[in-house]
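re: ur question from yesterday

yeah so i grabbed the chain u mentioned. its 541 aa long if i counted rite. heres the sequnce exactly as i have it in my notes:
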Amino acid sequence: MTSGSGGARRGAVLALLLGVFVVGLRAPLMDLPLERDEGGYAYIAWRLTEGETPYLDWFDQKPPGIFLVYAAALALPGDPVFAIRLVAALFCAASALALFALVRRLVGDAAGLLAAVLLAWLSADPMLQGPVANTELFMTPWILLASLLSLRIFGAARPPVAASLAVGLALGVASAFKQVAVVNAPFLILLYGLRAPRTGSLGNTACFALWMGAGGALVWAAILLGFWLRDGLGPALDAVLLHNLDYAARLTLDQRLGQLRHFLPPLLPSQGVAWAIALVGCIVLARRDDRFPAIFLIGLAVANAVGVSASGLYFPHYFQQLLPALAALAAAAIVGIAPPLGMARRVAIGGGTALALAPLVVSAVGFWRLDPVQATQRIYPGSVFETMPVIAEEIASLTEPEDSVFIFGAEPEILFYARRLSASRYIYLFPLFGDFPDAEARQAGVIREIDEARPEVIVWIPNRMFFAPGTPQELTGWTWNYIDTAYFLHAFVVPDAESRGTLRRVEPGSDSREVIGSGRPWATIFRHAASAAAPEEGGAP
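ran it thru and got these structure tokens back, copy pasting raw so excuse formatting
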């Protein structure tokens, strides 16, 4: 056996072991109930398999890559929730492998392997909403692939066309999962300019940027052409581009800082040590004779921190985009400060790794000991995601597959679990109630949709963000009037002694106000009066 084939075999074994490790690390929490983003992606993916068109038939502000991956997951046998989480875990394994290859080339074998292990733990952290199959998990391996491919180009007198196109294709695919992946494009262009030979560096940098841009443009040309052929180009641009620009511009600097102060502190007990070691990694790499690894990894961190900050909301899962750079820098610190030879080096690397991982391991084991409901409540305090399957089961029992349902709220996972059609293309109502210039027009459109669809069931489960000062409320008042006119209360959900949602049905003929009393139900389910004998005293409590 040649040394080359032996190296390939060792690489394949290492890749397999890393993949099994990443998937196994995520397995204990794969059975958590879907949260609202996952529910929206799953619902649109289900409808995609029925021949419908995202954005035209169903509004969501994420690019279409996530719907395609979810549709592939739904095609797998068995429980769809487990399938979605399994596919997400496979993408995380791909990220770990790509980071290993990237850091190995920049810092060395030991740092590469350590970075992959750190990323596996950091990205699976429940406090970072790591078990959830959000867009960042699917975007990250493509960003790392683009970075890895770029290493083959930096320093070349002229950028190879095929390799430059491949970098752009990888970033184009990444941005097809989440738009903020594009922050890596100017970063890579700048790095190429810094490494290019002085003679003709400006022209060669422009050439690299051109071919990389062409690769990304090819991805998006194919996407936009597909929507144009399905008469969905306008709605796609409205959702993916225009609404996102409004979304990103609506927060002031003070509000952005307030969001950061709210969401960052809960992450520090599990993530903080590794992040602090990553800061040490910046210093360790900067002191090396070859400063390029420092420039590359610190620049990667800065670029993706910009991506994390784009919307100004700082939800925990947004920080997934930053984790590969942090894991790489932390690995560089641990390996870089270890003694150069012998047992002392292994002890130092082992001790540094244990220090970085200990808070993450403690956090993970604590969550593994909880049941899915308890784990969900800890990851999403104040949410009721664990109750949505119960509501969906009730709706499915009340309706036929062809019936529609209107969710006055932001919980499309109900629709997916129940496999029932939304009466409005807005499967969650955030775009209608934010501080957006077109919010009133969108509300008026939903009123027309509901009036025409005459949904069999209406679920009232509003989000408190709907009632911010200055938010238009035409849809709110209209919905209550519509319920009073044509619907009766069928059931409601209230917390039990353990803060778990309990569904209580209302007997026909009961006074809904008396049944609910002074309680504050998490959700109320209204059924159309034409479908059954309505109670004597009606609708909205």
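noticed a couple things. The chain has a mean pLDDT of 91. also The chain has 22 helices and six strands.
anyway ttyl
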